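Dear all,

This email documents one entry for the complex benchmark we are building for the journal club exercise. For each entry we list the sequence lines for every component of the assembly. Then comes the predicted three-dimensional structure of the complex as a token string, followed by one or two observations. Please use this as the template for your own entries, and keep the labels exactly as they appear.
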Amino acid sequence: MTNNHIIDLKNISVSLGGEQILKNMNLYINDKEFITLLGPSGCGKTTTLRIIGGFLEPDEGDVIFGGKRVNGVPPHKRRVNTIFQRYALFPHLNVFENVAFGLRIKKLPEKEIRQTVDEMLKLVNLSGFDKRNVNSLSGGQQQRVAIARALAVNPKVLLLDEPLGALDLKLRKDMQVELKNIQQRLGITFIYVTHDQEEALSMSDTIVVMDGGVIQQIGSPLDIYNEPKNAFVADFIGESNIVDGVMVRDFCAEFAGSRFECLDKGFSEREAVDIVIRPEDVDVVPTEKGMLSGVVTSVTFKGVHFEIIVDVRGFKWMIQTTDYEAVGNVIGLRIEPDAIHVMKKSVYSGRYGDYSSFSDEIDMLSDTSYEEESVPDE
Amino acid sequence: MKLLSKVYNFLVFGFLYAPIAVMIVYSFNSEKSRTNFGSFSFRWYQELFNDDIILKSLYVSLLVAVLSALAATLIGTLAAVGIDSMKAPLKRAYLMVNNIPVVNPDIVTAVSMMILFVFVITRINGLNMGFGTLLIAHITFNIPYVILSVLPKLRGMNSNIYDAALDLGCPPLKSFMKVVVPEILPGIITGFIMAFTLSLDDFVISYFNSGSTAQTLPVTIYSMTKRPYSPKINALSTLLFISVMLLLVVVNIRQSAGVKKDKKTIKKEVR
Amino acid sequence: MNKNGFGKKLVTAPYTLWMVIFVVVPIALVIYYAFTDADGGFTFENMTYIFEYGKTFLVSIELALISTAICLVMAYPVAYGISRFEARRQQTMIMLVMLPMWMNFLIRTYAWMTILEGNGLINRALRYFGSDGFGMINTEGAVVLGMVYNFLPYMILPIYTVLTKIDVSTIEAAKDLGAGRRNVFRRVLLPMSVPGIISGITMVFVPAVSTFVISKLLGGGKTFLIGDIIENYFLGNTGMINYNIGASLSLVLMVLILISMTVMNHFDKDAGEGEGVLVG
């Protein structure tokens, strides 16, 4: 395997204010890849970013950049640049001077500065905004200025700390596409921090799922979604029904009182496991054809599909279906072997219950919690 | 109801301005009387400008105001940056000490410093109350106000902009000067102006800490009030009132001009 | 900010040093002097002067309280009235309130001497209308008048500030919920302006209770306030000077202010960080 790591984090541990934020973290990042650190507030993703940026020194471990150890190198001497939460534009400078800031520090000739700034503003679709006051720009435009400012100094790695968190949904989707385009066009490494799993799934080459200062899983978006390593990852990425089960033998799992054929193997006989079944992978069938049966307890219309909650022997399943089922109907459920994903038991087992107390609002609330993520000041 | 409130406001403002109006009128009195108005004259203004004591104390006042405001702004701004980045318990302790001169009655601040000065002076030969002690006292009561006007600016600042400057390759001290200082400049300027005016206006602390060699204008005015009536005070007050009014009007016009300008640029941008 | 910053510890050093030498040490000296005699021996004797001047303390507090109350009653309607004007008018009105404040208070007090004197303007006017006139200067009333006149703007400004910060929609909400004028004032406006009232009261009471100039100029040596006594012990006639007694009275005054501010802050539980830390 050829090593094209641009950044290596080796055995990184950090404590802030007596609280351990990162625990012996190991992570390598390939050159030119779009990697996302994904996790809930306080999982250590922003701290990881600040360590790479040089704003925070790890208590233990090495930060390797392009093969060289860079511990102790101050931020202004690192060839990585950051897009900060809420942009951190310089309010006293106009758009042009914001973008030119890093170039002026380098004391480049005026002509070159002008050329680079023009180029960058064009890249982020802000040509002609040079003289504008940054405070008069919309959130999306400020975001673009922040990107142009960071890219102007030609970094090898761009760190993005929840850059889209303050934008509204529509704008966020547009910016996702645009960021991905910019990354591909410039061919530089993006390290992206977010708590939004959809954002992570749609943009990344690699996703690093973190929780409690520990990396839970590293993989491509498809791997992470289809083959979550534990109940935390399964729950955090997308919707999932996580039920207790037992591996009877290879290719045969037992849960919800029945035995199912599956594609997983390599567990010991009768090993207790967590079973993940995505809501879209369950087929609704007449009761007599179903492998399981249950009573519909709630139905929500979601546009493309209905989201129905089904009570199967006291455990509430979420199922997405295109056919309407009335509350109170008894329906059969069919689960194909490739819809069943078996996970080893972990500390997260049993922490995620069923959908009995599910409500949309809770998701909405957690969406706006990005502001709490910032690392405490020292 | 509307009328009543108008009449009321008129009365209160009348109350505030009547004594000043009286002084202004009598400053042009040709006679040395508080009651009889002879004829219109500039006699007291002439006498005022020939009064060396008043002129010297005006000079002392201005000098101590400028010097103490400069020193307080420098010390206070630096300290505010440090205090802003402190952890909560230490920050609280600092702010508590900072507020002592703000909360304490002037007379307590004044005598406490006087005790210190006398304590030192009586133990070291050759020292005396004078311009030095006056300046120290003024710097001391000015610093807290600078801190109090700079701190909110630091708190309101997106602390990431300092990081962003570092991130773009700017060394720390330069980052501070190029990014943080412009952001908190309004607070620094407010702090300086506040310090300057407080210092100019102060009587109590100067009275206790200036000795006889470096009297400020208010101290001189105070000693004049004890002596027989002199309309020179009226003339002086009128001049002060007019300069303060001009200053406020200029500041006010500049502010509203600034507002207008902002409005214009915003309008332009909307189009 | 972060560890890579520019000597964060160092930037506070001059300030820390300055504040310790010129604020903390002097306060400590006041306490030291208050409990020692002329030779430096420990004593409680200075403290007994509190009782000797008990009446003076009471008069000072009484006059300051009366002035504060008058200021509050006078200022609230003015502050409210100003806050209802359109923005530009507000600015002008506030400028008018502040303008006298920018005049030195000695001058403002002196102006009243001219007006109140036996031969002053008011008496002359009264005599013109056939009345005998009466002695206004050198009374407690004149001292209260001086305090109200000098400190009224300090009451108007903070109340005005909180009133402008009140969201108009909260008043509309109250009306929407059936509150009349009286109830809007009593249940919404007044409770919401408490922080301004509190800082107004402090800003008037503290200088009023500790003044010695106003009582000297308008009280004419008949009304002695605690400030006069303290001034006498530090800068009075040679025989009168006694730093120890002066320090003990200053200490008591300081404690008195501290207690009253703590009490006031108690009423204002929502005090922001700025005001909340005033008394810790």
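Observations: Chain C touches chain A through four residues (CB under 8 Å). The radius of gyration of chain C is 23 Å.
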